[in-house]
Write a structure and sequence with these properties.
Distance between the termini: 21 Å
Order of helices and strands: EHHEEHEH
GO molecular function: 4 iron, 4 sulfur cluster binding; electron transfer activity; metal ion binding
Pfam family, one: Fer4
Bound molecules: iron/sulfur cluster
Structural class: alpha+beta
Number of domains: 1
Keywords: 4Fe-4S, Electron transport, Iron, Iron-sulfur, Metal-binding, Transport
Protein name: Ferredoxin
Mean pLDDT: 95
InterPro entries: 4Fe4S_Fe-S-bd (IPR017896), 4Fe4S_Fe_S_CS (IPR017900), 7Fe_ferredoxin (IPR000813), RnfB_subfamily (IPR050294)
CATH topology: Alpha-Beta Plaits
Low-confidence stretches: none
CATH class: Alpha Beta
Strand content: 15-25%
Helix content: 25-40%
Strand order of the largest sheet: 1-4
Length: about 80
């Protein structure tokens, strides 16, 4: 189970989460940052650090934001 970055990241992109991730699994994309679901150890540090509440545990992603789970998977498949 990994954490997922959702839509509030898109205008913000300040990368506070990148600085706190202990396994360096948060990567910058064109419009937002992405968490690599294969590397995330679900420590929750990024969720606490994000100033706009964009980060959720995968099972806790709000309705209407669930496509961000697939978007992250696609991002790392194409990387
Ligand atoms: S801290 Fe939040 S808004 Fe900023 S880059 Fe990370 S997920 Fe996006
Ligand atoms: S939950 Fe922890 S390991 Fe996963 S992306 Fe966030 S800071 Fe990194």
């Amino acid at each position: 189970m990994a954490f997922v970055i959702t839509s509030p990241c898109i205008p913000e992109k300040a990368a506070d989460c990148v600085d706190v991730c202990p396994v360096d699994c948060i990567v910058e994309g064109d419009d937002q940052y992405f968490i690599d679901p294969d590397l995330c150890i679900s420590c929750g540090a990024c969720e606490a650090a994000c100033p706009v509440g964009a980060v959720f545990e995968e099972y806790d992603v709000p309705l209407g934001e669930s496509h961000y789970i697939e978007k992250a998977i696609r991002f790392f498949q194409n990387a």
